[in-house]
Structures are given as C-alpha cells and as structure tokens.
Amino acid sequence: MYKKIFQQAFVASVLAALAGIIYNRIYFFATETDYSRVLNWKSIIGISVLVCMVFSFIYYGLTRWLKTKGEIVFNFIFSILSFASIMVPLSISLPLEVKFPELFPGLAVPMVFFPALAWFTVRPLFRHQFH
Amino acid sequence: MKKLIYPLAATLLIVASAFTVKLAQDWKIGDNYSIKFSGGDPSGEFKGLKGVVKFDPNDLAGSKFDVTIDVATINTGNGMKNTHAKSAMWFDAEKYPVIKFTSSSIVKTASGFEAKGTIDMHGVQKEVVIPFVFEANTFKGSFEVNRMDYNINTAEPNHGAQKFTLDITVPVTN
C-alpha cells in the first residue's frame, strides 16, 4: 500500500518543486532581488521532496490507524502545519549580505503551501488505488 | 626699500614655516566598511557611514572623528525586525535619523589608540571610550553599547539583548 502513497508523494513533490522554481523565477524578475544564497532550485527541490515524503509516512500511519477518517485528519494536519510554517520565512534572519530581507517573505511564504497544494491536486489521481 | 627687507624676510619665514607644520590628515571613508553589532538576538549591521575622519598617529592632538551612521540602514537580516528596529519603540529613526560620534581626544595606548568622545543616539548623549587600531589604512575597533543607557525600548528590558558589541572596520583612502 505504501508504494502507491510513495508514488503520490513523489508526483506531488515534483509538482511542488516545479511550482516553486517557476515562482522563484517570476519573483526574481518582478523584484530584481536575488535570494539564491538561501533559496535556489536545489533547495526548492530538496524541501519539496522532504516535505512530501515526510507527509507520506504521516498519511500512511494515519490511514492505517484511523482507516477512512485518517485522510480527513491528515488533510487538516497538512493544512494547519503548512499554515503554521509561514512563521519560518517570517522569523528567519538572512545573511547580512542578502539585500532587501523585507521582500523575502513575499517569496518564501507562498512556497510553504506548495507541497500541500500539490498533494491535494494529485490526490484524485491516486484516490482509488489506496483502498 | 631697505626698510622693507627685514619685514619681507620675516613674512617669508612665517609663510615658509607654516608649511613645516604637518596637519592631521583627512581620510576618505572607503565603501567596504562594516559596522556590525552582535550580542544575541538581534545581530546585524549599519550602513550610511559618513563624516570627517582626521587622523595622524604623530599628531593625535590635531586628529578628530566626527562621523554619523544612518539609523534607517539597520539590517538584521530579517525584514520584520528591521521595521521594528526603526520604529518609535526602538531607534525611532524618524525622530533620531542618525547616530553620531564626535571625538574630544585621541590618545595612544599599548595596543593602539583610544578615542574619547560622545555618542549621540536616540536623543541621548553619552561619553564613551572607543579603543581602535590603525593598520594598513584601516581603522578597527570594538566596544560595548548598552541600549538601556540610550533609552532604547526601556519598557521591555528583556526583549532581545541589552548589551551589544559593536565591531567596526573602516578602510580609508587619502
């Protein structure tokens, strides 16, 4: 069963990473600010894969434990944790060489929702394969 | 005509001797200076350093620092903290836009020099002694500042650090 969840998490992480990289480029062209020292295509891919894979284990555990209600609980947890994680880019202190730190949340805050957004987007494609 | 020879000679000597007096040199502040503060949370740096740097190790009596830094340039690496630091609760950059240091005397010490003078920050003037060295056309100094001495957010003494170490490196050119 975990194989299908892994596949969903992998597809979601690719989608989240793609969205993140595109948004990163759009933000760079819009603001002319370079945050590549702290957030670049490698770190975007890494974070997307990490988050989606961690949540795949949480999903697996919850659906095993709570059966059909597991997905409902999982969706709440994923959404709440994604929302709570906006505190990370808001509170982080960038290296002093990075200019315009006040614009960094505008780049990073939307990105914290990308893994959850990608997960919920691809979920219908895998819905009938888990149960 | 003979009467004028000696007054002219004296005048020439006075003018010529004036050039033998070596005045303390005026230095231009280089672009890659750094004014960093650390002491826990927050840490960061200031920019916008400008003013008069007159320094000659052989003429300390004629040497003087009269410099300012722009409070609005504070950078902690975090946009929210920068905004808070500039607000009325902390530095109040709108009311007190610069931090000023004016030296009153510079003395030689065993390890370098000490500049005695006044820091004017947040509307409070305080006498300080800043130890520094001058090597390879670069001033380097480090000293402690307690924000409570300058009435900076005294309402929240435990909100962030009180004591900060300022590390200053200022390359200069002729």
Provide structural commentary.
- The complex is a heterodimer of chains A (131) and B (174).
- Chain A is built from six helices and no strands.
- Chain A is mostly helical and 131 residues long.
- Chain A has one domain (2-130).
- Chain B has 174 residues and is mainly beta.
- Chain B has one domain (22-173): Lipocalin (Beta Barrel).
- Chain B has an eight-stranded antiparallel barrel.
- Chain B is elongated and about 80 Å long.
- The N and C termini of chain B lie far apart (45 Å).
- The A-B interface holds A 90-96, 98, 100-105 and B 36, 42-45, 75-83.
Low-confidence stretches of chain B: none
Report helical residue fraction of chain A.
over 70%
Per CATH, the architecture of chain B is Beta Barrel
What is the helix tally of chain B? Answer: 2
**Strand runs of chain A, count:** 0
Series of secondary-structure elements of chain A, N-terminal to C-terminal: HHHHHH
- State the end-to-end distance of chain B: 45 Å
Global outline of chain B = elongated
Question: What can be said about this structure in brief?
Answer:
The complex is a heterodimer of chains A (131) and B (174). Chain A is mainly alpha-helical and 131 residues long. Chain A has helices at residues 2-31, 41-66, 68-84, 87-91, 104-111, 114-130.
